[in-house]
Amino acid sequence: MLPPAFPPELRRRFRPLGVLGQGRGGVVHLVDDRGDAAIPRKALKCMTGERLTSDEWAQISGAGGAGARHPAIARLLDHGHFREGLYLTMEPCLGPDLASLDFRPEAGVLIKALPDLVSALAALHESGLLHNDIKPCNIRLAAELPAGAGAFKLVDLGPSMLVRGGPPVEAAQPCYVAPERLRGEPFDQRADIYALGATLFRAFAGEPHVAGRRAHELLRAMTSPPSLAVACPDLPAWIAAIVDRALAWSPRDRFASASEMREALEGADRRARPPAPSSGAFPASQPRLTRKESGADRFLEGVAAFLRGAEPEPELPPDASLVHRSLLDAARACAADLHRRRAAPVPTAVVPASPSGPGTLDACVADLERMAILEALRACENNQTRAAQRLGISRRGLWLKMRRHGIPLRRDRRSAPPDATGAQPGSRPVD
């Protein structure tokens, strides 16, 4: 196949160096700009039959503050018209695109770049624009770099960013087009989110999420797309869940915006990230917690439910102590290990014996709770009243937990040993 001809009237200013890509939207050439010494190397996109007014150019390029400025978006630099249509010059991205790379063995590279890509899409949407042509060949590495390095960029911006509706789309790769666009219905930023989800599915799984030659075949397949977790079982579950939601048939079931998708990515990545190694010892002095009614009990119950997978990660109290933070860090590490092992039981040797029984999730939580109590007693020199305040629980609650964990009850200056019910002899129990 012969390379597309370079418009002769543009040769006076631009010296063609090669073709970066071509499709229905036009041809992208790599050129040297003789009229710009500051940025001589550029990507030149030639679109036959297209025209662009000055107001439209100002909107898509960012002139007047309307366009998005983001490091993960290939910048538009200039525009003009030639005899057969419109040309745009933009920042060149010389690295490979997602269509030419197999990211299954290097999934971590793309996972690391995802927040920036979604943030770039959010910046585009917040400026009032849509990309309207997200697909694997339009996400490229900024430069030729070793595997595992470099930044991805959204490329191929143009007049299509101004489209908000119209007849059914006839794209060269319709599997990356949202179903509402294939049906010729009005669409919004959630169509871009669908296209990004389809692109990510292709990058991770190595094949499109749906197959078909005609629109009705694709629409039928899009009603029940395969899960990325099934197509790529080695991928982290949180990535698969985010991509699956982006590929929902109804726009209402997708992320409402790219900003919401970015927050979901960052939150899931933060929960899945293993905690930083601690120094192994608590400081001798910590800020005391204000006394709360069963506050620590509710927090510990939330940690136990998180480890069992019944609830999301609990939130720390606003005035959480280092004991609370250490418990949550240990729970994250335990949950990450259990996620890696899937259904494998926790080795008994790792979990010390506890009243809840060895080798169970409840045993892990009980051991963490016992560690926190012992540390609070040590820091408070066995003063149980101060230790209870430090843990954010009542004195009676501390005594009950000490008995449950087999911790000896010692008399201190401000408290006496509890009776069989856990109450102070001759006094009313503290709730």
Describe the structure.
The protein is about 35% helix and about 10% strand. With about 425 residues, it is α+β, with helices and mostly antiparallel strands. The chain has 3 domains: about 10-90, Phosphorylase Kinase, domain 1; about 105-270, Transferase(Phosphotransferase), domain 1 (Orthogonal Bundle); about 275-430, no CATH class.
From the alpha-carbon coordinates, what is the Rg to the nearest angstrom? 30 Å
Question: How many β-strand stretches?
Answer: 7
Q: What is the percent of helical residues? A: 25-40%
Percentage of residues in DSSP E strands: 5-15%
Q: What general outline do the C-alpha atoms trace?
A: elongated
| Total helical elements | 13
Note the main attributes of this structure:
7 strands; Phosphorylase Kinase, domain 1; 36% helix; 431 residues; alpha+beta; two-stranded antiparallel ribbon; Transferase(Phosphotransferase), domain 1
What topology does this entry show?
Elements: E1 14-23, E2 26-33, E3 41-48, H1 54-61, E4 76-82, E5 85-90, H2 107-126, E6 139-141, E7 152-154, H3 179-182, H4 189-205, H5 215-222, H6 228-231, H7 237-246, H8 258-272, H9 295-308, H10 322-341, H11 361-379, H12 384-391, H13 395-404
Antiparallel strand pairs: 1-2, 2-3, 3-5, 4-5, 6-7
Helix pairs in contact: 2-8, 4-7, 7-8, 9-10, 9-11, 10-11, 11-12, 12-13
